[in-house]
Design a protein that fits this description.
24% helix
Length: 136
C-alpha cells in the first residue's frame, strides 16, 4: 500500500492528488507530482511536490524519494521509508526525512510538523491493515 502512488491519499491524510509524470512506478527515475495540504501555505494554496524515485526494494519493503521541485521550499530533501518485521504481528516503520535548513524556519517547528504528519500517516496505515484483516 505505501509504495503505490495511486494509494498515497489513503495513508497521507493531507494528500489530495498524486499524478504520474514520467517513468514507470517502482523503477528508479519514476517522477510523480503530489499535491494537497501537506505543508500549509500562507496564501491558502495547495502545496505541491515533484518527487523522483531514487530507489525501491520490494524485498526489503523500502523506498527513497528525492524532492526535485516544490512550492514548500524543500527542494533536494530526501524521504526514506522502510518497513521492518518485528515478529508477533508487529512492524517497525523506519521513516526518515533529510532536509537542508530552510531560511526563516525554526528547526523545531519542522520536526514537530513532520512528527505530526508521520504519526497521522502511521495511524492511517494501521487502520487500513486492520480493515483489510477483517475482510479476509
Amino acid at each position: 500500500m505505501v509504495s503505490l502512488t495511486r494509494r498515497l491519499p489513503e495513508w497521507i491524510p493531507m494528500v489530495e492528488r498524486c499524478t504520474d509524470l514520467a517513468g514507470e512506478e517502482g523503477v528508479a527515475g519514476y517522477i510523480r507530482l503530489v499535491s494537497g495540504f501537506m505543508f500549509p501555505q500562507q496564501d491558502g494554496e495547495r502545496s505541491w511536490i515533484k518527487e523522483k524515485l531514487v530507489s525501491m526494494d520490494s524485498s526489503s519493503h523500502s523506498y527513497v524519494y528525492r524532492m526535485e521541485a516544490s512550492n514548500v521550499g524543500l527542494d533536494g530533501s530526501v524521504n526514506s521509508l522502510k518497513l521492518v518485521d518485528y515478529g508477533e504481528k508487529s512492524t517497525l516503520v523506519d521513516w526518515s526525512f533529510e532536509v537542508d535548513p530552510l531560511e526563516g524556519v525554526c528547526e523545531d517547528s519542522i520536526i514537530d510538523y513532520l512528527g505530526f504528519l508521520y504519526k497521522s500517516c502511521i495511524n492511517r496505515i494501521e487502520g487500513a491493515i486492520e480493515a483489510a484483516s477483517k475482510n479476509v
